[in-house]
Design brief:
By secondary structure, this protein is mainly α. Among the domains are: about 50 residues; about 35 residues, no CATH class. α1 packs across α3 and α2 runs antiparallel to α3. It is elongated. The termini are far apart.
């Protein structure tokens, strides 16, 4: 029987996936290895950890973190083992591609409920108090 083979889209795994991390299970034909694939969330979480990103970020912070990590681990600038630095550089580039691919294919919602969730405190207050001169942001009523 051939050995078990883990197939991961990002191309690297520090350890085998934990229980519950596997989203797809595909048994190969007779004599072929079994293939396991990480879920999209697990791929993005792994990429986020490599780029040292918090859970909520902007595109600017993703780009700056990518540049910062790449400058730190670039084989020409890294003071550690060159092979280790080159491997980490490949991981950083792969992680950035994974996150950017998700950002490009993200479907934005402009529904009223979604937009209201992201209102500023001033917009929220004005929506509830309206044009009232006492409570309405100091705007005189018409």
């Amino acid at each position: 029987m051939p050995p078990l083979r883990i197939v991961v889209k990002m191309g690297f795994v520090g350890r085998l996936p934990q229980r519950g991390c596997v989203s797809a299970f595909k048994a190969g034909k007779k004599g072929e290895p079994i293939q396991l694939k990480m879920s999209k969330f697990d791929e993005i979480s792994a990429a986020r950890k490599i780029l040292d990103l918090p859970e909520r970020v902007t595109m600017d912070s993703i780009k700056s973190s990518f540049r910062r990590m790449l400058a730190k681990w670039h084989p020409d600038k890294c003071e550690e083992d060159k092979e280790n630095c080159a491997e980490m550089t490949r991981k950083i580039i792969s992680a950035d591609e994974t996150i950017m691919d998700d950002c490009v294919h993200y479907q934005y919602s402009f529904s009223e409920n979604t937009v209201k969730k992201h209102q500023s405190p001033e917009e929220w207050w004005f929506e509830r108090s309206g044009d009232d001169p006492l409570w309405g942001n100091g705007r005189p009523s018409k």
